[in-house]
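Why does this matter for the project? Reviewers at the last site visit asked to see concrete outputs rather than summary tables. In response, this paragraph embeds two records directly. Each consists of the residue sequence and, immediately after it, the corresponding structure tokens. Nothing has been edited or filtered.
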Amino acid sequence: MSSPPVIDVERLNLTYGDFRAVRDLSFQVRRGELYALLGTNGAGKTSTLETVEGHRAPTSGTVRVFGRSPGDRRAVRHRMGVMLQESGFSPDLTVRESVRLIGALTRRNDRVERVLGAVDLARKAGTRVSQLSGGEKRRLDFATAVYGTPELVFLDEPTTGLDIRSRDALWDAVDRLREDGATVVLTTHYLEEAQQRADRIGLMHEGAFHREGTVFELTQTLPAAIRFALAASAPVPPPQAARQGDGRFLVETFDLQKDLHSLLGWAQDHAVELRELEAGPTRLDDVFRAIGSD
């Protein structure tokens, strides 16, 4: 028998006066998965997450985290780690003091040295928060979120401001959390991160899900693309190739391998060079750009 979902949202509605920010939203996050909640600006994802995290009460609908209301902080809060988009640390506290404070507030046990070592902040333990760089503050945000290895971790734009090495180190730490059984909910504007790492994605638009599924399921909703250019003296290309405004040709296909093979065969038969040839499957950013045009 499958385990109950870590997060269970059923027909969630959130309104601010006459504005309906979230509309009958339902989804589940399973134990151990990385679920990415993405959306256009104003889509309602922040309001949704604030409700799941227990910071906001739903206008209607039900939200359960570990089978309990997220408003039941004594039962739920110590099992969750939250990395907000912006730090709320006191600038006068040191890095060590900030981590200890979060540990005390969340009632989780850990060693400050272990957590700071995991995010390469051990040498900054005695430094005041006000003296940290932007990237160091983001690493401190992550350190406090994962202090005590919570069962559920919310990561809101976790890699903003991080250099490549710090970004890789953060994702390595997330991988270790997941190996230990943690569930992760991610929001990010770096769509390639969601494409590479998410088990499932909920793509929001105007307060509701535009689509939900695995990366493969989402990208299969749009055709793949083959783009190329031809010399002016070249023969007329196959009929499925449409000329674009820049003079190049575009083939949209749900069978990329077959149509690319056919196009290459046509070029071989006619001794034609396919200039600037590009071919590839639909990416998550293509799905994202299609929002609102369906």
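We now turn to the second protein, recorded in exactly the same manner.
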Amino acid sequence: MDAPSGLDVLAWDDVGSTSSSAFRAFKDIAFGSIAGMASKVFEHPFDLTKVRLQSQVLDSTARFSGPIDCLVQTWRNEGVRGLYRGLPAPIAGAMAENATLFLSYNELQTLFRRFNGQSSSCDLTLSQLALSGAGAGAITSFVLTPVELVKCKMQVQMLTPEASVVFPSASSLKRNSLPGPISVLTSVIRNTGFRGLWLGQTGTLIRETGGGAAWFACKEFVGIKLIRRRAKSSGLEMERKDILPWESAVAGACAGAVFNLSLFPADTVKSVMQTEEELRPRGKGIPAPTFLGTAKALYRAQGIRGLYSGCGITVARSIPSSALIFLIYDGLSGHFPS
């Protein structure tokens, strides 16, 4: 049998490289989807509370005095179903969001390495990881905005004047049904066109770009510190891939808190814009709210406090939720290496 020529070796290298890249992309999509779905089921009642608190900032009379009151009232008036109102949209969104986020994050890291002439195993600097996270967040924002629009509209369905008349109690809610995610989606397209699905995109873009940089950079920073601490005590050499489950969870928990604290006002503005049609309709012919105009209105209404409405419960739920995401993602990546 003839020995393989140089061209044959290059061809097999190209095939192997393509196969490895495809498998890595598949892993990012699959593992990110699983992690996102699991975290969203856990955190949805708290996210619903956050959106409802944000949506009342411009109201003359607040419906809820705080997050606990919102949770209690929702449970009392709407039951368990109320706490998970709008869940199908964020479940699909969380799968798409985390799949896009992790895929973009890792592909941008690959681009950095190629640009710098580094090997695929070479670790990037924290600033490069932050830039990769920012780019991944920016890309993901365009996937996320339509999903969050449907989710937010569904989460305030029971707060509209019409709903309080039609569904005065949880028992009547069981006998009737509010529009589901498909109905809400088609209604938006029918009334505002496909462009209307990206209402609040500016807020999502700001939140995800800055938040993505903070989320990934914080996770990597804390994770590396924990790994180095363990390596120093054991006298062994360790890499990022050697992270333990509890280290992934701790690093992810820190990242979740940093993500939501970094640019929370942008999320508040986005939520108010996306629920205005249900709670404060402007009427036909009046232009849709702008990001800057809504931000000014929120600041005039309640100042900085209004822009951070719902921040406490969001940070509280993001800590275990983000820990769960990285625990699952890192765990699956460790069991199925490239």
